[in-house]
Specification:
Oligomer: single chain
CATH class of the largest domain: Alpha Beta
CATH topology of the largest domain: Rossmann fold
CATH architecture of the largest domain: 3-Layer(aba) Sandwich
Structural class: alpha/beta
Shape: globular
Strand order of the largest sheet: 1-2-3-5-4-6-7-8-9
Radius of gyration: 20 Å
Order of helices and strands: HEEEEHEHEHHEHHHEHEHHHEHEH
Strand content: 15-25%
């Protein structure tokens, strides 16, 4: 019954979105809770950054959010998370487009191909292509190609960090690391994949999430670890590493990465986000008086971002529109995980049944806070 109600709600929202033109490239003026209105946002959606030979056009596309009066604006390029296996450029952005456009930025949100369709390093190669395309084309949309900043959440934070520390991916496209002027990874525990995998093995457990993304080959772990590539003189940009305060693996990884960057003479700041979860850190970025948002604003203002109007913007939560295809994929993924994890076959997952690598998201998936996650709850979480 809960699933039926949820699906009816989704269908209703989709119909409303169609009636209001929310799903087509257009200009929109989000409501504001103050007298100061957000600038009209112009959207260019589903632009193919890969080229005519893209093996998956939807997965190699990006969205651009701007405003009519923005010319030569700094650019924030965002990479969604999802364990390298799920997620998309639309549902991950939350308040960010409105916030950054109101702050005088062009905001770019990208897709990339996901495992198991592909394996590493195809995903980071896609990210590099998106950055190169943005560098070559963003001036047509009001952006300054000389001021591109990169951010990402979770798996997207890992990819953002890797593409801005290992110059090989951009060099293959005729670019170098100087094309990006700053990197802001949000709550990644994947800066040193070797240490993550070795820690799991020392406790006699498998990290299925990381093995799915990076196989069980230590050579690939090393290649995929951003910390491997940090050294002087490579053009690595300044970093702000944001992590959830009580998420130990992310905290340790972020601090270690910052130390490695500083040792190489690269500016690196860290911000510990209190009273946040892995999901809420990303979901609430862009809200007024949100401490991580303020940290991002302060960092960008010192590295050429100059977001002058951010303090005056109070965003209103956008309607969450989940496409039928995405909802169906999320239900299939939830069904697959349940078959693997529901060891006592009681139709719900306890925290202990969920692999340790995935437990950071348990509280966010437990909608009714009863200490268990049902298949419906997991499907909703995966569909966000």
């Amino acid at each position: 019954m809960r699933r039926i109600i949820w699906l009816l709600t989704v269908l209703t929202l989709i119909v409303l979105a169609a009636c209001n033109g929310l799903d087509t490239p257009t200009t929109s003026s989000p409501a504001s809770t103050t007298s100061r209105q957000t600038p009209k946002i112009t959207k260019w959606l589903d632009l193919n950054y890969y080229g005519a030979n893209s093996p998956n056009p939807a997965a190699t596309s990006l969205d651009i959010y701007g405003a009519e009066n923005l010319k030569g604006a700094p650019v924030m390029l965002f990479i969604h998370g999802g364990g390298w296996a799920t997620g998309d450029k639309t549902t991950a952005v939350k308040y960010k487009p409105e916030f950054f456009v109101a702050s005088g930025y062009i905001f770019v949100s990208i897709n990339y191909r996901l495992v198991p369709e592909i394996q590493f390093p195809t995903n980071v190669e896609d990210v590099a292509k998106a950055i190169a395309w943005t560098s070559d084309n963003i001036s047509k949309y009001g952006g300054d190609p000389g001021r591109i900043f990169v951010s990402g959440h979770s798996a997207g934070a890992h990819l953002a960090t890797l593409v801005t520390t290992n110059e090989n991916y951009l060099q293959a496209l005729g670019k170098n690391l100087s094309v990006t002027k700053g990197c802001i990874p949000l709550d990644s525990a994947a800066f040193d994949i070797n240490s993550v995998m070795e820690e799991a093995r020392s406790r006699g457990v498998r990290n299925e999430l990381y093995e799915g993304a990076f196989t069980s080959n230590p050579k690939i772990w090393t290649e995929a670890s951003p910390i491997t590539w940090v050294s002087r003189g490579r053009g690595v940009p300044p970093f702000l590493l944001v992590y959830v305060a009580d998420r130990q693996d992310s905290a340790v990884n972020s601090r270690n990465m910052a130390e490695k960057l500083r040792a190489a003479g690269i500016r690196a700041e860290v911000f510990s986000a209190a009273n946040k979860t892995h999901a809420s850190l990303n979901r609430q970025l862009g809200l007024e008086k949100d401490p991580p948002t303020e940290a991002v604003v302060n960092f960008l203002s010192t590295v050429g971002g100059n977001p002058a109007t951010a303090a005056h913007y109070v965003p209103v939560p956008p309607e969450e529109i989940i496409s039928p295809d995405r909802a169906a994929r999320a239900r299939e993924q939830a069904k697959t995980f349940f078959k693997r994890w529901d060891t006592n076959q009681d139709g719900k997952l306890s925290r202990g049944e969920v692999p340790e690598a995935n437990r950071a998201n348990f509280a966010d998936a437990d909608d009714d806070l009863d200490g268990f996650v049902t298949e419906d709850e997991l499907a909703r979480f995966l569909g966000q």
